[in-house]
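=== Discrete structure encoding ===
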Amino acid sequence: MRNTPDAQQLLDEMNSRSREVFRRVVEGYLNSGQPVGSRTLTRDMSEKVSAATVRNVMQDLEYLGLLDSPHISAGRVPTNLGLRLFVDSLLEVSPLDQRDREKLDSTLGSNERDVSGLLEQVGGALSGITQGASLVLSPKHEAAIRHIEFVSLSADRALVVLVFADGHVENRIFTPPRGMTPSAMREAANYLNSLIDGATVSSLLERFRSEIARNRREIDALAATLVEQGLAVWESEGELQERLIVRGRANLLDEGAPAEDIERIRTLFDDLERKRDITEFLELTEQGEGVRIFIGAENRLFSLTGSTLVVSPYMNAERKIIGAVGVIGPTRLNYGRIVPIVDYTAQLVGRMLTDRRTE
């Protein structure tokens, strides 16, 4: 974790007593979910202080925007800014529990050969261990292509089929250009197949774009548009809709939770089902290795401001980011436990995918 300038400035303004009060309030809230009062703190402080002294310190921390008081006579809870400061500067990450490690490692023994099926099992294990909702962004299939075909389904719907050299087959439905005929689709497919020569989706996309730029006058405009739309489905929103695996949403729907909390959870999953802004999920991880934590409004993926996203990228053998794993939960997460779990899961997925490609 790294400190932001604001967090460092706030830390500089706090003496050792203020830091201890702040840390104990946050830890108490994360453990119980309840406001922490001054009387509770006086029993645990490393120095003997009165409840009045602790209340004064808590008021100062509230003035700094780090704590909040839900009710006039209640104790304090951390604000999102307070949680950010705690996570960046005071969080003590626990070693990965052996039982958690064994549950995650058990996915290695799966007989599942399909990568998507394997990642679904990993997502299920991650959700079960953390009691949150897990997100797994699976990698694109980058094997060499053997054949491409476009199939007209109706005037405004078409299917593009990719057959890979390793036997994997993928297909997506897309909207073809207006006026596209089945014969034009066949011509577009023939054109692409002439360029394949062992290319992957990404390299072929770049190749045909260059080819179109050089020979634009010789290529039918509608066919060119069809080609671009048909392949772009793997590079844009359609692909990501298929690649995002969500497990454990029921873990966030506590029957005893307040109605407004349940509504926020439903809003979160409405966002997930629409896959709104889901391209940002991987982008969130690409600014460096390791686990990143997004608290409340910092979590730009979803409109659920009362949530936390703990996310980490996973990489292939060439140390290239190819996907990500994460956990969504309330802001009152056991961060010290969740962070090493997400980190280990990301490393595990990277190793699994690398090993399978070398088999």
Observations:
- The CA atoms of residues 136 and 325 lie 4 Å apart.
- The chain is about 50% helix and 15% strand.
- Strands lie at 67-68, 77-78, 133-137, 145-154, 157-164, 169-174, 244-247, 292-295, 307-315, 321-330.
- The chain has three domains: 5-90, 98-139+244-358, 145-233.
